[in-house]
Amino acid sequence: METELAAGFPTLLKQCSIPVMKTPLSLVPALLLGSMLLDFPLCAADSGLRERLADAHAIGADHWIYNDLDKAKAEARKWNKPIFVTFRCVPCKNCASFDAEVAQGSELIRTLAQTHFVALRQVEMKGVDLSQFQFDHDLNWAAMFINPDGTVYGRYGTQSASGPDAFNSIASLERAMMRALALHAAYPKNQAELTPKHGKDKPYKTAFDMPGLDQKEKLRGQTERGNCIHCHNIHDAEQNQARLAGVPNSAFLERWPLPDNVGVHIDPQDGAKIERVSIDTPAAKAGLKAGDMVTHVDGQPIISIADIQWVLHNISGGKASVLFTVTRGGKDLTHRLSLSPGWKKGDISWRGSMWSLRPRPGYWAREMKPDEVAAANVPAGIKPTKVQVLNGNQPQGKAAKDAGLRTGDVIVGVDDKPLTMSPAEFNVYVRLQHKVGDRLKLTVLREGREEKITFPLVE
Q: What domains appear along the chain, each with residue ranges and CATH number?
């Protein structure tokens, strides 16, 4: 299989439209075939951590270095290989099947990871350099490809309201890995165009240096399932600090926008090929077309959707522009997209960090099944929810309980309007439309009677 992979490498690179090969493409297979001759075992650095986390996907996957970046850098320098580092929140169910495929299930990914990369499985954020590893921290699974000197080749991993794996696939990860290898083969001649992929240094080095990180002393203890820093905790800490500085919650609508925000939908099986362009969007007006292969955005080489998001993340949400360079019919074309204020705003209902935004309503209500809706005699056009959890031991839950809200209440209205939102959408609504100190108005059905309940949103 490895021989077939090497033989097909130039063809795949051409299909992927790798734009960075200043040197002859024929040199790439020789470099890669040379790396195949290097056979070395990579063992887990901390089997105790793996056992404490019950990290089943790491069992038998000894080609991964386990949670030890320093060892990965040393091996990468020794063998002149790029580092393929994955970030995985082991307890999280989202992306679990994809993680299993990457970690040990896919023979193709295993072959690529073992022969051409130094593979690192990072399962906690406690000691991670947050300036080096800048990615969307709301992801349950993410990857970065870096040179041991810190140069970033690219990012992989995208999530949205469409689902945790709507953009992740073994096929597109393979292509991202191939593109990263091409960038590594051309390095350091392409260093100038790679520099912006690192990003500006953060004012703090690790999570423990972040002023907004909660429960620091507890988290300094031994890492276990109930005592680890999740990726989304980085965004939580940023939001806590922003709240103290008076930054509105609406600012977090602009985080890591999808290329769909500018009218570009990327083929999730490729990661760089435009599958469709939405009508009357900046992309359509600029002349981008379905079938175009995105090679650069604002001059940065693209290996996946996440790379496009990285560029868009760092552009102003006001009036702005962005350059998309694509390959079409064997030609390189550059299109300037003009963006209007508000273009970055998106759906944050899926984000884990959404739950740390204030205010919190103090209860959790679930969606109701059709037979429950019929039995409750809910008027048409309403999306009722049923109060499942009401924690009277917390200030927010106590305020709702003291006002009369009860477990089992059917909520049919909010702020004197019919409820037409899912539970996740409702929680976003509260955080965007209200602030701590406001009063939330609910209309509920209880034993067939409609009641009005109003309570304060407290810290």
A: 2-197 (3.40.30.10), 358-456 (2.30.42.10)
Rounded Cα distance, 13 and 31, in Å: 14
Query: How much is the pTM?
Result: 0.88
| Environment class of 298 (CB within 10 Å of its CB; exposed 0-12, middle 13-18, buried 19+) | middle
Under DSSP, the state recorded for 362 is S
**Omega into 19 within 30° of 0, i.e. cis?**
no
Q: Transcribe 276-291 into DSSP letters.
A: EE-TTSHHHHHT--TT
Closest to 308 measured CA to CA, from 270, 279, 281, 348:
270
Nearest CA to 413 out of 369, 448, 374, 454 is that of 454
Ranges of beta strands (E only) in 279-428 are: 293-297, 300-301, 320-328, 331-339, 363-367, 385-390, 410-414, 417-418
For residue range 348-391, list pLDDT tens digits in order: 999 999 999 999 999 999 999 999 999 999 999 999 999 999 98
Q: Which residues pair with 451 in a beta bridge?
A: 444
Residues 326-350 pLDDT 10s: 999 999 999 999 999 999 999 999 9
Q: How far is CA 145 from the centre of its chain?
A: 15
What is the structure's pLDDT at 18?
Answer: 43
Instruction: Give the position of tokens 């929140």.
Output: 89
pLDDT attached to residue 46: 54
Read off the DSSP letter of residue 163.
B
Euclidean distance between CA atoms 184 and 81, whole angstroms: 8
pLDDT, mean over the chain: 90
Q: Which residues pair with 456 in a beta bridge?
A: 439
Angle of CA points 65, 66, 68, to nearest 5°? 85
Q: Is 106 exposed, middle or buried (0-12, 13-18, 19+ CB in 10 A)?
A: middle
Per-residue model confidence as pLDDT tens digits over 101-122: 999 999 999 999 999 999 999 9
Report which of 348, 349, 361, 355 is spatially closest to residue 438, judged by C-alpha positions.
Answer: 361
Q: Is residue 274 within 8 Å of 292, Cβ to Cβ?
A: yes
Would you state the structure tokens that stand for residue 303, as one six-digit string?
């290996």
Question: Residue 306 phi/psi, 5° resolution?
Answer: -60, -35
